[in-house]
């Protein structure tokens, strides 16, 4: 029996970013991550100090909660984290799909899984220099390959000029993948705060900067999107 | 030689709403409309009182301006209005596509054109009761048919509960089309103002209402999106 560590399950709400922005979704946020990005906005699901807050759930437990929240009406389930790819979500995806649900998953691309091919979409989010992490491109390539014919997209968070230049190079490796770029939240919530203060003006300012920088460069490949949930709800958790 | 009435051409900027939200785009805003929605946010391109401000341009004139603004680098050209379908954009689309550009077009679906089949996407935006207009569904069906295999999406602006209920019925007519709903701007700019005041708190409040209403209803088909350009630039024109 598969036991998964789950930081939170919530929704239905809208997906706030990336390829399925605006889509009604239930989030299943996995606990645990193989990265520790300097600006992580979900430390409560990453830092092992918070491990005692993660529930140990079977695939069936998780599915019961998704069904309760959605009323059994099919929607897209968003698997996030932490890094959901370090755990085995294959059985959950297979079961949910048999009930008419879709599954989106976002990961940094550090662990490839054969069940990536069941996702719609697989969102690969390689982390830029400001994160303090470094991408292993061989493993990242293996993730793209594991997805096969499943819809796969790139999403890159950008905090500064160095990240921007890095994003252009990273994206150039995968010209066939739809590309999304977004400004980071430079005032992420501390892991023990449910609704921490946020610099909304600064966030809008950075979004405008990213739009101006990209368009002035005549780099027209990416869609340039904000984090809608941040604009609506700030740092509030569970929405 | 085709002569078109053009209210404005501007960009590159991002598409602020709907199916290609976040995509770099040059807008070509046609002058003239067969509707007169009560809450129209582009009256300067609709009200014939402003007809003297619309340029008479050939297809070549328009293309030259798109090329100047984009630097000749292919992107999506957004044809808007007014109702761009009352004029013949077929030659512009054919020429631009031969140069590698894509064309998106938004219309209320009151005039069908054979060149709809060249769009990616055709955005059909049937107007809800609060507009004061009424949809001719036979003509609307003809628009869907004219698009053929071209990507076609529905986008419905919602101001109130009556609009919401109407949107659900309208969308049920086209279950196969991707669906986008968005709150309207209840403080649209007057036609002679370049940067009119806007009720941003009210706009965010209405967006939250629409999310809550839709999700509480377990209506998971639509993507629920704001007008990003309004959140960033308010009622400023030409961005």
TrEMBL record, chains A, B:
<keyword id="KW-0671">Queuosine biosynthesis</keyword>
<dbReference type="GO" id="GO:0051539">
    <property type="term" value="F:4 iron, 4 sulfur cluster binding"/>
</dbReference>
<keyword id="KW-0460">Magnesium</keyword>
<feature type="binding site">
    <location>
        <begin position="39"/>
        <end position="41"/>
    </location>
    <ligand>
        <name>S-adenosyl-L-methionine</name>
    </ligand>
</feature>
<dbReference type="GO" id="GO:0008616">
    <property type="term" value="P:tRNA queuosine(34) biosynthetic process"/>
</dbReference>
<keyword id="KW-0949">S-adenosyl-L-methionine</keyword>
<feature type="domain" description="Radical SAM core">
    <location>
        <begin position="20"/>
        <end position="235"/>
    </location>
</feature>
<comment type="function">
    <text>Catalyzes the complex heterocyclic radical-mediated conversion of 6-carboxy-5,6,7,8-tetrahydropterin (CPH4) to 7-carboxy-7-deazaguanine (CDG), a step common to the biosynthetic pathways of all 7-deazapurine-containing compounds.</text>
</comment>
<feature type="binding site">
    <location>
        <position position="37"/>
    </location>
    <ligand>
        <name>[4Fe-4S] cluster</name>
    </ligand>
</feature>
<keyword id="KW-0479">Metal-binding</keyword>
<comment type="subunit">
    <text>Homodimer.</text>
</comment>
<dbReference type="GO" id="GO:0016840">
    <property type="term" value="F:carbon-nitrogen lyase activity"/>
</dbReference>
<keyword id="KW-0411">Iron-sulfur</keyword>
<dbReference type="InterPro" id="IPR013785">
    <property type="entry name" value="Aldolase_TIM"/>
</dbReference>
<feature type="binding site">
    <location>
        <position position="33"/>
    </location>
    <ligand>
        <name>[4Fe-4S] cluster</name>
    </ligand>
</feature>
<dbReference type="InterPro" id="IPR024924">
    <property type="entry name" value="7-CO-7-deazaguanine_synth-like"/>
</dbReference>
<comment type="pathway">
    <text>Purine metabolism; 7-cyano-7-deazaguanine biosynthesis.</text>
</comment>
<feature type="binding site">
    <location>
        <begin position="14"/>
        <end position="16"/>
    </location>
    <ligand>
        <name>substrate</name>
    </ligand>
</feature>
<comment type="similarity">
    <text>Belongs to the radical SAM superfamily. 7-carboxy-7-deazaguanine synthase family.</text>
</comment>
<dbReference type="GO" id="GO:1904047">
    <property type="term" value="F:S-adenosyl-L-methionine binding"/>
</dbReference>
<feature type="binding site">
    <location>
        <position position="80"/>
    </location>
    <ligand>
        <name>substrate</name>
    </ligand>
</feature>
<dbReference type="Pfam" id="PF04055">
    <property type="entry name" value="Radical_SAM"/>
</dbReference>
<keyword id="KW-0456">Lyase</keyword>
<dbReference type="InterPro" id="IPR058240">
    <property type="entry name" value="rSAM_sf"/>
</dbReference>
<dbReference type="GO" id="GO:0000287">
    <property type="term" value="F:magnesium ion binding"/>
</dbReference>
<feature type="binding site">
    <location>
        <begin position="125"/>
        <end position="127"/>
    </location>
    <ligand>
        <name>S-adenosyl-L-methionine</name>
    </ligand>
</feature>
<feature type="binding site">
    <location>
        <position position="40"/>
    </location>
    <ligand>
        <name>[4Fe-4S] cluster</name>
    </ligand>
</feature>
<feature type="binding site">
    <location>
        <position position="82"/>
    </location>
    <ligand>
        <name>S-adenosyl-L-methionine</name>
    </ligand>
</feature>
<keyword id="KW-0004">4Fe-4S</keyword>
<feature type="binding site">
    <location>
        <position position="42"/>
    </location>
    <ligand>
        <name>Mg(2+)</name>
    </ligand>
</feature>
<protein>
    <recommendedName>
        <fullName>7-carboxy-7-deazaguanine synthase</fullName>
        <ecNumber>4.3.99.3</ecNumber>
    </recommendedName>
</protein>
<feature type="binding site">
    <location>
        <position position="29"/>
    </location>
    <ligand>
        <name>substrate</name>
    </ligand>
</feature>
<keyword id="KW-0408">Iron</keyword>
<dbReference type="InterPro" id="IPR007197">
    <property type="entry name" value="rSAM"/>
</dbReference>
<dbReference type="InterPro" id="IPR017742">
    <property type="entry name" value="Deazaguanine_synth"/>
</dbReference>
């Amino acid at each position: 029996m598969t036991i998964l560590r789950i930081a939170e399950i919530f929704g239905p709400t809208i997906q706030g970013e990336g390829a399925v922005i605006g889509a009604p979704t239930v989030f299943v946020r996995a606990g645990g991550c193989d990265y520790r990005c300097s600006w992580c906005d979900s430390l409560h699901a990453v830092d092992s100090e918070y491990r005692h807050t993660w529930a140990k759930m079977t695939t069936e437990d998780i599915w019961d909660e998704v069904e309760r929240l959605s009323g059994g009406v099919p929607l897209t389930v968003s698997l996030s984290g932490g890094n959901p790819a370090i755990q085995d979500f294959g059985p959950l995806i297979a079961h949910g799909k048999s009930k008419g649900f879709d599954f989106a998953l976002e990961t940094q691309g550090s662990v490839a899984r054969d069940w990536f091919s069941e996702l719609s979409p697989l969102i690969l989010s390689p982390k830029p220099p400001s994160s303090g992490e470094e991408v292993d491109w061989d493993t990242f390539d293996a993730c793209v390959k594991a997805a096969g014919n499943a819809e796969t997209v790139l999403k890159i968070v950008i905090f500064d000029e160095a990240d921007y230049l890095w994003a252009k190079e990273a994206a150039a490796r995968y010209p066939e993948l739809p590309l999304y770029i977004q400004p980071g939240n430079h005032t992420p919530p501390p892991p023990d705060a449910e609704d921490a203060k946020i610099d909304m003006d600064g966030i809008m300012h950075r979004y405008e900067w990213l739009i101006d920088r990209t368009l002035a460069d005549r780099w027209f490949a990416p869609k340039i999107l904000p984090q809608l949930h941040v604009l609506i709800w700030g740092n509030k958790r569970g929405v």
